[in-house]
Amino acid sequence: MTKLKHLAASLSLLGVLGTAGLGPALAQDDRNTTVQDGIKVRPLSRFAKLVPAETINEAAAQQYMEMMSQAQQKGVLLPPSHPEVQRLRNIAKRIIPYTARWNQEATQWQWQVNLIDSKDVNAFCMPGGRIGFFTGILSSLKLTDDEVAAVMGHEIAHALREHSREKAAKQMGTTAIARLGGALASGIFGIDPGITGTIANYGAQFAGLKFSRDDEREADLVGLDIAARAGYDPRAGIVLWRKMAALDKRAPIEVFSTHPGGESRINEMQAHMNVLLPVYARAKGTSVAKLPPYQTNVALR
Questions:
Q1: Is the pTM of this model over 0.70?
Q2: Domain coordinates in residue numbering, the chain
Q3: Catalytic residue flag (residue 155)
Q4: pLDDT single digits (tens) 240-281
Q5: What is the DSSP string of 217-270?
Q6: Which of 60, 194, 205, 241 could cross-link to 16 by cystine, CB 3.0-4.6 Å?
Q7: Nearest by Cα to 42 from 27, 34, 31, 52
């Protein structure tokens, strides 16, 4: 959802959550396919098939391992016993079973979730379900579990819908992919212990690798769908973007330079609450009419 995603999910990926409640499979050959409960997505890109899934997944696994290893060497990879790591992994554990309805290959992914101690307001998911969060996105936005699920769902959705794999196929050959992935890992952790600065520098170089508006729309809605099925309130996506807007006013962040505007995203999410809220209500064993108002943990203007 933020700059690291375009680096780690687009670049590392360029270089380089069992299933339940699946329902009908995606019809991948029909434009504007309607998937259960009213969410429309494009078919998985034929361009993505030009880069073999095995190539992408193997490279992503290697680059993710290198990134986490170097983060550990720098003392910024938080241990599994850390409460926030446990929190992220518990949320992922609930979401993962609902991912395969959007991409059956997710049943074979080797899911991982890690947390890096950095002020960056960032999160990402590489191909094969390799998830990374930065402490900055949790602390700066004071995210509730529902809001963490909205972030995580969004990032996972990019991987499920193969957005970065499509870009890899369109923009580069596999040799260049591996080279850029290696540059990302060494750049972030090998040049400057201050991770924030290096991310900004690489971001300037690779600004052209942002996802399209259609990709972002899909990631928002697919992410909220899988989060709602896991019992997380999809209204959290709206609050998340309001928090992003408030943070951007205080200290501009990069997220708006590579994503559709906050208001347009909020409007799109609101337009789909009629299909997302019933899914969430069913997961909670209640009805939409009986759902309480969404509660966040900070006052929003």
A1: yes
A2: 3-290
A3: yes
A4: 999 988 886 654 444 444 455 578 889 999 999 999 999 999
A5: HHHHHHHHHHHHHTT--TTHHHHHHHHHHHHHHHS--GGGGSS--HHHHHHHHH
A6: 60
A7: 31
